[in-house]
Design a protein that fits this description.
This protein has helices at 3-27, 34-59, 67-85, 88-112, 117-132, 143-146, 149-154, 162-180, 182-192, 194-199, 204-230, 242-256, 261-280, 285-303, 305-326, and strands at residues 138-139, 156-157, 160-161, 233-234. The protein is mainly α and 327 residues long. The protein has a single domain (3-326), classed as Orthogonal Bundle (ABC transporter involved in vitamin B12 uptake, BtuC), CATH 1.10.3470. The strands form two sheets. A two-stranded antiparallel sheet has the order 1-4. Strand 2 and strand 3 (160-161) form a beta hairpin. It comes from Rhizobium lusitanum.
């Protein structure tokens, strides 16, 4: 992508941001208050980390529909460990490991047994949801206050909330892995042309399994921030993870021409602006979900390679004619 095209896409992202902020600020002046800006950033952190993990799966041209179930199972595991041991480190590790193992299970079933990714991840997500109910419907104890998990959401590092710092670190690690290392190039190669990747010596099954495991672990990490914000673990904790994550990835890809970590962060930021605005306006969840679903459909339509190629083909003759006129 040329610098001129990147600049144009960045301007389009900036215009969208200004439009969204202006609309919500007009309807609710408190939207741009310092307190609400921090709330937007915290909300972006939860969806952003989950979206970063999902980016690895989308790059592989696969789908993971288990996010909601895996998030609920990870949240309840986190709450159960905290209630039983009051060991914050063990609880955080348990949540991430549960998410990673669920993702790895999906990856193994897809690669080892050649099962379709959509059906497999729906099944794994349903199993994870059922496993979450083993702990109960919700978990809340005094350990949520004494363990320090609430400080993860409330603490500030300089002028940035701690969840934003965690998101920045996660994004930096993911960016290096996906865009600066040869492993990241292999992820893209497997997604774009599995045959060519195999002939180049890339172990396709390993990368697919790794992509799903990374996605699951990211969901387990993201739900930690959600539990830290709410102060309790619930089987419904993952109900608001799947749709915003997919919308963030595809919206960012549509805006910046491909699934990348920076594009996903841009999409997650726009989603946080929208979701927070819907919340301030007390919009019922079914209306906000309908709007987000519409955005997701439009983003997928724009991100389709054939649509992008059609747009490029339509623009090229105009550019060529313009250059001839200038001569």
């Amino acid at each position: 992508m040329s610098m001129k095209e990147l600049r144009g896409r960045a301007i389009m992202f900036l215009v969208l941001t200004i439009v969204i902020v202006t609309v919500f600020w007009t309807m609710a002046p408190s939207y741009i208050s310092q307190r609400n800006v921090l709330a937007i950033l915290r909300q972006m952190s939860v969806n952003g980390i989950a979206s970063i993990g999902l980016t690895f799966v989308i790059v592989l041209r696969r789908f993971d529909l288990s996010l909601a179930g895996v998030a609920s199972f990870a949240a309840m595991t986190l709450g159960a460990i905290l209630a039983a041991t009051n060991n914050l480190f063990l609880a955080l590790l348990g949540s991430i490991c549960v998410g990673g193992l669920c993702g790895l299970l999906s990856g193994i079933l897809i690669t080892r047994f050649k099962l379709p990714d959509v059906v497999t991840t729906i099944g794994v997500g349903s199993i994870a949801t059922g496993m979450a109910f083993i702990y109960g419907v919700s978990i809340f104890s005094s350990h949520f206050f004494s363990s320090g998990i609430l400080r993860i959401n409330d603490s500030m590092l300089w002028i940035a909330p701690l969840p934003v710092v965690i998101l920045a670190i996660t994004a930096a690690v993911a960016y290096y892995l996906l865009h600066m290392s040869r492993y990241g190039q292999s992820f893209y190669a497997v997604g774009e042309s599995p045959v060519t990747a195999r002939l180049s010596g890339v172990t396709i099954g390993t990368y697919i399994a790794a992509g799903f495991a990374i996605c699951g672990a990211a969901v387990g990490a993201a739900i930690i921030l959600n539990v830290a914000a709410v102060g309790a673990a619930s089987v419904n904790a993952g109900s608001r993870v799947l749709l915003p994550a997919y919308t963030a990835v595809y919206l960012g890809a549509a805006l910046f021409g491909g699934a990348t970590i920076p594009a996903t962060l841009a999409g997650a930021f726009l989603m946080a602006l929208l979701l927070n605005g819907f919340s301030i306006l007390s919009m019922p969840y079914f209306y906000s979900d309908a709007i987000v679903s519409f955005i997701l459909i439009m983003a997928i339509a724009v991100f389709r390679p054939e649509i992008l190629n059609l747009i490029h083909e339509r623009l090229r003759p105009r550019a060529r004619d313009k250059s001839l006129l200038e001569r």
